[in-house]
Amino acid sequence: MSDNATQAAFAPATGLLATLDLLEVSQSGAVLHLRLNRPAKRNAISDGLIAQLHTAFVNLPEGTRAVVLSGAGEHFCAGLDLSELVERDIQAAILHSRGWHACFDAVQFGKVPVIAVLHGAVVGGGLELAAACHLRVAEDSAYFGLPEGQRGIFVGGGGSVRVPRLMGTARMTDMMLTGRVFDADEGERYGVVNYRVADGEGLAKGIALARKIAGNAPMSAFAVMHALPRIAEMNPGEGLFAESLMAACASNTPEAQTRLRAFLEGKAGKVLKEGGL
C-alpha cells in the first residue's frame, strides 16, 4: 500500500492540535500521525517547531495508543535551524538546550510509543529527535549525520546521551570529528534503524507498526517505555528489583489478566515466525 493510500484513512486533528501550524496532525483510530511541516527548510527545528512538538506530545488526544512521526517534503529533519542560532549568554544557551531536552523527554517518556519514519536528511537535531523515538523505520533515501563538529557547536538536544546508546560512542565520535555520514543500510547495521524499507513505503510500515503496538496492553507499553531504559542504566541488583516491581504492576492489571486467560483458553495467537511485521 502506498503512503498516499495509507494516509487516506486519517482525518485532520481538531482542537489544540489543529492550531499547530508547523505540524500536520491527523488521526486514525488509536494512531496519531505527526508530520513536521517545514519542507522549504528541510524541516529544520526552529524555536517555534520545538515548542509545537512539545505541545503536541503533552496534549495527545484521548484514546491515542501510538504516534507516527514523519517529515513533509524530501527530508525527515535537517537539524537545528541555524538561521535562529544567535549569540546567547551561557544561561540562555543552557535554557535553550533544556527546552529541547524537555520536548524530547516528552517523546521518549511520554504517554505512548512513538515510531519515527525517516527519509532524506536525518541530521543533527533530526537524529537527536529520531533517537528519542522508540522505533525507527528508514527508507532507502535516509542518511544520518552529526555536523556539529564542523559548525563549531555541540549536540544540545540529548544526542550525547541517546545516540551512543544506539550506535556506540566510537561511531558518534567519528561522525562528529570527521563529518562522516551513514546511509540507511549503515544506520540499520549500526543499530540506529529498526526497519528498512524502499522509498515511499516508510509511512505505511510505520503506521502498520503503530497499529500493532496500539493493540498492546497500556501498562505493558508503559513498562517498556519508562522502565526498560532506566533498568538498563541500573546496576544488576537494582535492575532486577525494579524489574520485579514492574512485572508485578503489569501482570496484575485487569487487561493483563483478561489477556492471560484468553491465551490459556486457546483464544489468543501463539508466537510464530511467519506473519510478523
Folded structure, characterized:
This protein has 277 residues and is an alpha/beta fold. Helices cover 47% and strands 15% of the residues. It is built from 12 helices and 10 strands. It has helices spanning 3-7, 47-58, 90-108, 125-132, 148-151, 159-167, 169-178, 184-189, 202-214, 218-233, 236-251, 254-264; strands spanning 11-12, 23-28, 31-36, 66-71, 114-118, 121-123, 135-139, 143-145, 182-183, 195-197. The strands form 2 sheets. It has a 7-stranded mixed beta sheet with strand order 1-2-3-4-5-7-10, sandwiched between helices. Strands 6-8-9 form a 3-stranded mixed beta sheet. Strand 3, helix 2 and strand 4 form a beta-alpha-beta unit. It starts with a helix and ends in a 13-residue tail after the last helix. The relative contact order is 0.12. The model has no long low-confidence stretch (mean pLDDT 92).
Walk me through the topology.
Layout: H1 3-7, E1 11-12, E2 23-28, E3 31-36, H2 47-58, E4 66-71, H3 90-108, E5 114-118, E6 121-123, H4 125-132, E7 135-139, E8 143-145, H5 148-151, H6 159-167, H7 169-178, E9 182-183, H8 184-189, E10 195-197, H9 202-214, H10 218-233, H11 236-251, H12 254-264
Parallel strand pairs: 3-4, 4-5, 5-7, 6-8, 7-10
Antiparallel strand pairs: 1-2, 2-3, 8-9
Helix pairs in contact: 2-3, 4-6, 6-7, 10-11
